């Protein structure tokens, strides 16, 4: 058992893994914030999808008018869905990348660019900023994940 604990301690002492843990936490918190923003928009726009959510606005027919879609709520939801589609792969591939022994400076570059691009993507979605801002921020983050995946495959399988 002590050998297993030593391996965990070594992982925590690994500078690349600590960098990964830091930036993974940042993007996960950002993604969680999107849930709160969605809730805020639902409440302020009075646009709900579940009948029980409208109970505080009345009963019966008077509450049914709040069972609707709202463009602002849907925009936030699309941004959140985009996070799920891009941050989840980053978490898995980024972990494998961090464990593959990259240089600290290269790993930090990957993690920082991904995190910055995803934050920029969120602002571009929520404000909204004109294209190609949102598309470029998505492409940059996606490219970083692909780059890490390539480096993992190259290290693990000698591609």
UniProtKB/TrEMBL annotation:
Membrane-crossing residue ranges in chain numbering = 20-41
Q: Which reaction does it catalyse?
A: RX + glutathione = an S-substituted glutathione + a halide anion + H(+)
Report any Pfam family annotated for this entry. Answer: MAPEG
Principal subcellular localization: endoplasmic reticulum
Where in or outside the cell it occurs: the entry states: Endoplasmic reticulum membrane; Mitochondrion outer membrane
Q: According to its UniProt record, which protein family does this protein belong to?
A: Belongs to the MAPEG family.
Function comment:
Conjugation of reduced glutathione to a wide number of exogenous and endogenous hydrophobic electrophiles.
* Subunit structure, interactors included: Homotrimer; The trimer binds only one molecule of glutathione.
Protein name listed in UniProt? Microsomal glutathione S-transferase 1
Q: Which organism is it from?
A: Alca torda
């Amino acid at each position: 058992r002590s050998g297993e604990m030593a391996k965990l301690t070594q992982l925590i002492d690994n500078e690349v893994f600590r960098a990964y843990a830091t930036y993974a936490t940042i993007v996960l918190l950002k993604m969680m914030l999107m849930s709160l923003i969605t809730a805020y928009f639902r409440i302020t726009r009075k646009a709900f999808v579940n009948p029980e959510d409208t109970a505080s606005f009345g009963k019966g027919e008077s509450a049914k008018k709040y069972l609707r879609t709202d463009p602002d709520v849907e925009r936030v939801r699309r941004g959140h869905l985009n996070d799920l589609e891009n941050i989840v792969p980053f978490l898995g591939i980024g972990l494998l990348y961090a464990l593959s022994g990259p240089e600290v400076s290269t790993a930090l570059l990957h993690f920082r660019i991904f995190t910055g691009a995803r934050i920029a993507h969120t602002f571009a979605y929520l404000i909204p900023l004109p294209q190609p801002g949102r598309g470029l921020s998505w492409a940059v983050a996606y490219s970083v994940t692909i780059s890490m995946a390539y480096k993992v495959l190259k290290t693990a399988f000698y591609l």
